[in-house]
Each structure stands twice: as structure tokens, then as C-alpha cells.
Amino acid sequence: MNFLLWCSLYVYMDTKSSGMREIISKIALVALCILLSGLSLLCTGCKHRDANLLKGSAWKAWSIDGTRVIDNSFISLYLWADGTLWGHAGVNTYDSSWACEGINHITFCADPDSGGVTMMGGPKELEAQEQAYLEALWDIAAFSLENNHEQLKVYDATGQERIIFGRLSQNQADPEKLKNTEWTLGWYNGNPVSDNSSMSLIIDAGGKMYGQAGPFYYEIGYKTFKDNIRIVPVAGGMTIQTMSNNRLTTAGEALTALQYSGIYNIANDTLQIYSAKGDTAVFLRYRSLYVQPSKVPSLVSESGSASWAYIVRDETVEKVPVSYRK
Question: What predicted TM-score, i.e. pTM, was given to this entire model?
């Protein structure tokens, strides 16, 4: 705006000493100043708006360099408001950083030196796809949001389209509603979970989750932003307990999914957690009452003294919305 005022003042002060041709030229210069000023304001506003829309967003890759993502594979990208990014590349998980910068457009930065990639192996076709995805991701220089912000396209410095993402479900989740809650696993990837393969989940207000999943007693940390959730390591970790193997399969898979948590939602006494690998775990709110029956059994300890036994009545919510049934 100051630049525009200086252009106008220049024309006014120099009118008397200039011919008609010079005056017309200077009027054209002012018009150009107006145009550039408007474009500058437009780009600055677009930059601010789109940058905020990306904060806390989650995406699933649809195509890489024009090639559709392999069926039944899942590549995710989570952009946190603190400038960190992470996701699942099909075989391994990765984390790095991102930033919006630039004047005429918004640049997207993914620096491989600021994070890392796990070193697990997988099928050759998924490994090849993962390599192509990560190489493209590290080359990203700009992005665009399309289809009412439901699609994210990213480009390299030459303007070549590299990856197309679709937005993962976005929920109006309140992180405060997670704190001091207890849950038990009810459904995993659309299948009901029996009592002998379930897991418990207790979420405290201090950033920790703990419970039992089959043969595992676990304790993990978590952080949230809007409906984003990410598991972080804490001292203690998991301790293996000796139990029958039939309790390992589903509970162990669900615990793995929990460790890759990406998005959550709380609705109708259920906690839905969607992992970065594409798994879905539905937990039911746990309610238990310690009831003393009319005839409480007396247990005699080794010392001969009596102790009282209390019966636990599990009042876990049994109804799961139809949309989560397979």
C-alpha cells in the first residue's frame, strides 16, 4: 500500500514538467502498482489461510508420480501444527518436518535429515512403492488444496505433480474428553472381539495410556492436537506376562494398531482409533461396579485370618453403532 501511494505522489509531483506521453506512461505505472499490490495481498491471505488448513490435517496417498497406490496398501501423512510430520509409507513409518513459506505461493518442506525412517522389510512391490513415495516427498516444494480442501496435491520445484492425497476423516474431537477415561476393545478392523482376546485401555490426564492386551501389560505416552493423536515412548514400556497363546493374536494386533494411532473420535460411548497403517480399533467405554453380594465368600489366608472377596460386575457398553459392524 505504501508503494502505491509513492507511485501516485510521483505522478502528481511530476505532472507539470512532463508531456502528455509521460503522464500517460506514469498513469499506466500506477495501474501496474495497483495490480501488483492487489496480487500481493491476495497471495499473502491465501498463504495464511491454506497454511492454517494444513495444520492438524491427515491424508492418505492416492497416486505417486501418476501411478495409483497399490491396492490394499496404505500410505499416510500427518501434518502437526508444531511443524512435525509423520506417517506410514507402506512398509515403514517415517517422521520429518514441514513448513509453509514463500510469497507468490506456499511451499511444502519435508527434510529427511530432520527425522528418520524405520528399517523394516516387506514385499518387494511395497518396498519399491515406498521408496518412490519417500523420494517424491523429500522433493516437494509446493502444494495445492482442491475439491473443497478434500484433496492435497504436492509438486516439486519444477511444478511437476508428484503425489495426490485424499483427506482422511476429520472429526470435531475434544482432547479433554480423552482424559481420565477407561475403555475395553470391542471391535478390531470391523470384527467383534471376544473376551479372551480383548484389551483394556486406561487414559490418564498426564499424557499416558496403559492397560493389558492379551499377554502384554503396556504403558505408552500420547499427545493430541484436535483429532490427531500420536503415541510417544515413555519409561516402562511393555512387560510380557505368561498367558495362553489364544489371547495373543487379536490383542497383540490391536496393541500394534494403538502404537500407530493417527486419528481418534469419541461418539456414543465408543472411542474409535484409526492407525497410520489403516487399521481401525473401536473401544467401548468401560464401566465396572464392585458389588458386595449378600453372602460374601470368606477366603482363609495362610496365616489363618479371613479376607473378603468382592465380585466385579462388568457393565461395559455392549452396543456398537451399526456403521462399525462388518
Answer: 0.69
